[in-house]
Amino acid sequence: MAQATLQRELEDFQERLQRCTMVCRDQAREKYCLDGSESGAKVTAAQGFITECSSKCIDKHLSMLENMRAKIESEIGKHER
Questions:
Q1: Which of 46, 56, 79, 80 could form a disulfide with 32 if both were Cys (CB 3.0 to 4.6 A apart)?
Q2: pTM
Q3: Are 58 and 50 spatial neighbours (Cβ–Cβ below 8 Å)?
């Protein structure tokens, strides 16, 4: 039961990170009007934007790890009783 709880929480966390980075990519496409044929400065700027946006997203999600740990411990505790 503990392993299933941990697995579920980790999968949810990973999905959140993936969605966030996908949003960053979408925002870069819109901001820099990318259609797949660009090169040079425009692509470099978009990559920088994606990196910065993704870093902020990751930082936000890292701050959620303590709550995730508490939730996992609570769920495991319910099943141990």
A1: 46
A2: 0.77
A3: no
